[in-house]
## 1
Amino acid sequence: MSTPVIELSGVSRRYEDGPAALDEVSLTVHPGESVAILGPSGSGKSTMLNLIAGLDRPSTGTVTVDGVRVDTLGEAGSARFRRAKIGMVFQFFNLLDDLTVADNVVLPAEMAGMARGAARRRAAGLLDALGIERHAKAYPGRLSGGERQRVAVARALMNRPALLLADEPTGALDSASGADVKALFNELHADGQTIVTVTHDLTLARSCATRTVKIADGRITADHRTAVAG
Ligand SMILES: Nc1ncnc2c1ncn2[C@@H]1O[C@H](COP(=O)(O)OP(=O)(O)O)[C@@H](O)[C@H]1O
Ligand SMILES: [Mg+2]
């Protein structure tokens, strides 16, 4: 079997005082899987994504992503790892409002040292593929929520990540824009992209994920394989 993209082994995360935000979680995700993480607010979903992305460290347990022990990386190593391996999409887009759409998308490649011309060409190709090339020179503030999320997805894909992580990607969108983002995630999955999406949106889980993991009070309570509808 191929190397897992994600391997969480006995992962707990405790903050001072409170109960464990994550409690002995083990989870293996293989290349090409599209996993939806479902659970009520406060159940530990974002904590789990942050640990996978190396933005946070577990209290106990190990986090391995694409063969790299993320939990033992220092700050610089973890930033480098994220640039090379992870694309992230957030509920509120997290675009830089004083950069154009094209400059937002190009930024991760520039930070990774890709040659400028090659980076521009790849960004233009992604914007074209995502249907937002006409906005390349616009500033994000001029775009609709759905368009901004497409820009965020283009940026996330810029460095050809082994793993696309999304935290409530449709949470701030109207239902039509949300449907566009779901269709986009379906296409990415069909192209072989490994995706982990945290969501409250059951239709997103049903329509885009090949696997649904439920989490409550920091523990995995269900883990089902599902058929992708679209
Ligand atoms: N920085 C923090 N300090 C203290 N407690 C936190 C912190 N971040 C999250 N928590 C707690 O950990 C639990 C899980 O939070 P989170 O992972 O954000 O949940 P979800 O994303 O499922 O809504 C919650 O009880 C939350 O209050
Ligand atoms: Mg959250």
## 2
Amino acid sequence: MLRMSELVLTDEERARAGERLVALLDRYERGLPESRLLPEPDRDQLATLLADLVPEKGIGVDGLFDRLENTILPNSTTVAHPRFLAYVLGPPNGVAAYAEAVAATINQNCNFWQLSPAASVVERAVLEWLASIVGFPATAKGILTGGGSLATLQALATALDDRVPGFRRTGLQRSAPPLVIYTSVEAHRSVDRAAAILGIGVDHVRHITVDDQNRMDVDALTAVIDADREAGLRPWCVVATCGTVATGSVDPLDAIADLCEEQDLWLHVDGAYGGLFLLCEEMRELMRGAARADSISMDPHKLLFAPLEAGCLLVRDGAKLRAAYAFDSSYLTVAEDPLMTDYMDYGPQLSRSFKALKVWSALQAFGVDSFRVATRRTLELAQHFARGVEATTGLTLLAPVTLTAVCFVVDDASHSDHTKLLETLAAENTALLGPVMINGRHGIRACITNHRTTTEDIDLILARLREVVASRQR
Ligand SMILES: Cc1ncc(COP(=O)(O)O)c(C=O)c1O
């Protein structure tokens, strides 16, 4: 068949692209257990990507797939390897690639109804489901974001709009005492980053001390808020963490919610790592209080194993989210429809990709229970790892294991010994673990947010760690 435009494929090319894609996905999946965790980047090959920027004449479907297979894949990190345990990063679920292909094909612009009716309803369905997991009321609204960092940034912008009179018109360009944010020393850097971006300034972020389980100390929080009020500052917002990035600790959300109510402060819960553990019944008591937050962030690209990027912000009183972001744009309005949500009114973007499709597709294909099972398994594997560490003379846990982060030290090992051990484990393809520092002590962190990890994988890592310890004792 003749090509109708230079930029579409002929029937034959489309069939060939399909064959090559299916073969690539299949080989990738089958090769995972034997694959290298970290590539040994071929610098010359990567340099050619810079040198031959873009060809004047296209290399065609087969040429493209050859380049993908020969240059891109071998120089990419295998995040789906079952012993990839270095970050809070879930490998994509099994239907991710197909949902992404469909999303790219229909290319819905998820900003307003007319451009994306089904996408708008799908996003709303995903958000309503996530809100129900948190226990938010029907007034809640949200938006899918590029990740947890952006969800926190967008939450704090909402809190500014809600709590600072005249914020939309005058911003922070008025002479008023500084606003202050409270979070813990264990909070993610995205809180500082949001404060910097929003013009609050990192000097106005108080990092509250934590208890022996790395949870925000509420007495210390109260004292710091009181001192700030006394000094004439404006306490404004608390960011509590449901699953800290280093140790997975969960701040005392209920007690913090009480304090925020008493003191009239906006409460944002950073649930980027931990929020989705609310899927598991046994975690609900620990996370009680999340439902009382003004806003919460969660990351489907972590524990719903959606491919990057899929974060989520939920605001308990959805009208506040809309008030912070909606601007009239006469050229974009259509008749009201009860099904309709114009997501351009709920966040900073106008053009937006159809992120909800990959989340929704996986929920359809596998069902919620499969995610509950996978999430619960990560919790169990972390406990299994922790028991293995405790049972090994020469290894010591650095922190209680609340969720799936297991932090430990090799006794008497220095920071550089730990760094070398991490390098060795990665180089021999045993596992990719990460460094951690807790209370000034350097150690190692395994974060099990990987639905492919099995008990055998954890046992293999423990066995290797025992060899290392034994060789140190010789
Ligand atoms: C507690 C916490 N908050 C925020 C983030 C940032 O999330 P994202 O990488 O999706 O921006 C992370 C990432 O690991 C996290 O663990």
